[in-house]
Amino acid sequence: MTVMSLSRRDLARLLGASAAVLPLLPGGRALAQSRRDTLVLGIDISDTVTLDPVRQAQYTPPLTLAACYDTLMTLEANDLVNPKPSLATKWERRPGGDGWRFTLRQGVKFVSGATMTAEDVKFSFDRLINMKDQTQQYIKAVERVEVVDANTVDFVLNSPNAPILSILCNPGCAILEKAVLLQHGGVQGVEAKDQDKATDWLNGNSAGTGPYRLTRWERNGQILLQRNPNHWRGAPAFERVVIRHLSDSAAQLLAVRRGDVHAAFNLIPEQIATLRSDPNLRVDRLPSLDHVYMALTQNPAANPALAKKEVRHAIGHAIDYDGILNNLLGGAALRAAHFLPIGVNGSTEAVAREVGFSQDLNKARQLLQAAGLAEGFEMEIAYGQAAVAGISYQVLGQKLQSDLARVGIRVRLNPMDQVNLRTVYTQGRMAGGVLTFWNPPAVSNDLWASAVVERVARRVGWDVPAEMTALTKRAAEEQDLAKAADLWVEWQRKAVDQANHFILFQPIYQIAVRNTVKDFPLTAAGWQLDTGKVTLA
User: Fold this and answer.
1) Contact (CB, 8 A) for 290 and 507
2) CA–CA distance, 383 with 373 (Å, rounded to integer)
3) In degrees rounded to 5, what are phi and psi of residue 275?
4) Residue 296: helix, strand or coil by DSSP?
5) Among 18, 265, 324, 389, which one is most buried in terms of CB atoms within 10 A?
6) Where do the Solute-binding protein family domain residues begin and end (predicted)?
């Protein structure tokens, strides 16, 4: 790989407006590295369309949200099953057993200096529920939140055994300051969906209790955070955090080597390999629970061929999964059978090999012949002009185009703006396949599985049978882990057979970090990095 040498002017233009915030020193070294009060992260944040916790449904915003907001509980990297205290110090079944009672941490202050109370918690969840955005689907089991007293709240569930605790750890379930949201158009009642106006303000500010507060967001430019001196864990190590948008991995590599950023998130395997001899850098790794996949419509109006299950199965057997994992990703990935990532209950590498698709070109050709398409057909694959887990969607699309051509399927690639792609996909207007991602807002099998049968199925034109929905609910509520694992294997088998979603890889995070950073706690819980716990050496 050739890395271009950039002038100071070119680098400033590449890095965008943030160059004005972090001027370069003689020799090209960034001021960020000479001042120990600013943490600079280099990452592709082109998918950021909002920083309102209730409305976000993208890959990178949770990193920012987790820095600006706290939740009732949190998950730690070494234990993604058992929630740990955060704004709640304890939780127990509420009287009657139809929900959970949370005792709130006393003395917690918002960035405004106001003290958090149970009313703020109720407001936050009332707004979340009544906005009826995607985040509400994550907590669909919550019927209502009741204030018991100033430091206690009850969550009343519509299904007492619904898995909810780990879901409440996700940044979308952030606690916001009621008084501030009301000042900026926030609405808590049933009219919130149509009347809430707080999102615009929240896109440039925050009203949380987190270690940092949002002060500015420039789309495809940067996100600026300021230290919250009132944080209940104590003030974080840095006065400021700059999350700098760098869409090109070569630019990230150059920036982290020069010291213009402390960490680079989207390097490709070849670039990671070049860092082994650099004494100023290290590579921090962590298996993620994310996955990158291709969603395939079965809407005959979009593509009549894809309406046939045999054709979708043929595509599943035409893809060179091992080539994606080993050649494109350098082995820094796993592949699950379906939407349950390897490492959660019922999903292992052995299950993936047994249940998931594997490349078999002869079988793919036979399936196409059985579908009356022995000569192949044409289809589209759309993707965002961005990178994920160290690989661009364009490279991934080109790989699939090559794989499918081997069985006579002619693929048109359609690169799109990330926001437009999201709109096309969520509204079910895809013409063929879409390359996209799923990162967990929280670690819960039910979140992944319910998303498939309730939302993602509609996008691809799958009319989910009642027995599949019932299986999802039964597996989610099964209290015996062994029995639940068997149910989840059955669920994966049925979802794979439907052949609307093809898991391409489950990445292992590989983040280039300068050795001037001591603690850099990665997490697979859905927000990548616990920014408030980063420290300098």
Assistant:
1) yes
2) 26
3) -85, -10
4) strand
5) 265
6) 83-428
In three-state secondary structure terms, 287 is strand
- CA-nearest of 235, 242, 244 to 111 is 235
pLDDT band at 20; cut points 50, 70, 90 = very low
Q: What is the CA radius of gyration of the chain?
A: 23
Computed over every residue of the chain, the mean pLDDT equals: 91
Burial class (CB in 10 A: 0-12, 13-18, 19+), 507: buried
Asked if 504 and 292 touch (Cβ cutoff 8 Å), the reply is yes
How far is it, in rounded angstroms, from Cα 437 to Cα 306?
Answer: 21
Bridge partners for 434 per DSSP: 295, 382
Q: What pLDDT shows up at residue 419?
A: 84
DSSP code, position 173:
G
| Helices (runs of H) and strands (runs of E) counted in the chain | 21, 22
Q: 286 near 488, Cβ under 8 Å?
A: no
- H or E element, residue 42: strand 38-43
CB 379 within 8 A of CB 303: yes
- What is the torsional sign of CA 364, 369, 373, 374? positive
Binning pLDDT at 50, 70 and 90, where does residue 395 land?
very high
This prediction's pTM: 0.78
Q: Are the beta carbons of 297 and 379 closer than 8 angstroms?
A: no
Of the candidate ranges 13-22, 165-174, 403-412, 517-526, the one whose mean pLDDT is the lowest: 13-22
Backbone torsion region of residue 392, taken as left when φ is above 0, otherwise alpha when ψ lies between -120 and 50, otherwise beta: beta
CA 133 – CA 403 distance, rounded (Å):
37
Nearest residue to 521 (alpha-carbon basis) of 271, 263, 175? 263
Q: Of 287, 366, 324, 314, whose CA–CA distance to 78 is shortest?
A: 287
> What DSSP assignment string belongs to 325-379?
IIIISTT-EE--SSSS-BTBTT--HHHHHHHS----HHHHHHHHHHTT-TT-EEE
With residues binned 3-state (H G I as helix, E B as strand, rest as coil), the percentages for the chain, rounded to 5, are 35, 25, 40
